Amino acid sequence: MPVENLARSDVVTAHEDEHVEELATLMDDSDIGSVVIVDGDEPIGIVTDRDLATRVIGNGMDPSETTAGDVMSDDLTTVDHTDGFYHVTELMSEHGVRRLPVCDDGNELVGIITFDDLNELLADEHMQLSDVIQAQRPEY
After folding, report:
1. Domain containing 32 — which CATH number?
2. Which of 31, 37, 70, 125 is the most buried (most CB within 10 A)?
3. Cα-flanking dihedrals φ and ψ of residue 121, to 5°?
4. What is the pTM of this model?
5. SS3 string of 63-125?
6. Confidence of residue 126 (pLDDT cuts 50, 70, 90)
7. Which domain holds residue 100?
């Protein structure tokens, strides 16, 4: 199944000059754990709630003076919208990330897929398998 069928298309984005205070507010208001940093429509980095805790608060930085560009992970791993589920899991494992921005053929951001999304998909698949087993099992 292509990742474009699994990914969320409502990605919360910001620019690298956005103050991390605003990013934290965006995350809280949207009930999410990351903001993809973009230049136009192209993803160039990501800031997670963990980044805010460890890189900003942990280093004693002033959130009103610190920008996304100061703390974002800029070694961004992305996935192509046509890539499959297994490739996504391989990339997450290989790069030690829980979120992958999804890009189209022009490297423009079209979605995001998270570890939690994949877990939810697997749980749904397991539930369907369980239903099949229960339907075929004789009554005791």
Report:
1. 3.10.580.10
2. 37
3. -60, -45
4. 0.85
5. CCCCEHHHHCECCCCCEECCCEHHHHHHHHHHHCCCEEEEECCCCCEEEEEEHHHHHHHHHHH
6. low
7. 3-136
Sheet holding 99-103, edge to edge: 79-80, 99-103, 109-114
Q: Which two tokens stand for residue 99?
A: 């979120």
d(CA 43, CA 36): 7
Predicted confidence (pLDDT) per residue in 73-92, tens digit: 989 999 999 999 889 999 99
Give the containing element (helix H, strand E) for 50: helix 49-51
- Mean pLDDT, the chain, as a whole number? 91
* Cβ burial, residue 9 (10 Å; 0-12/13-18/19+): exposed
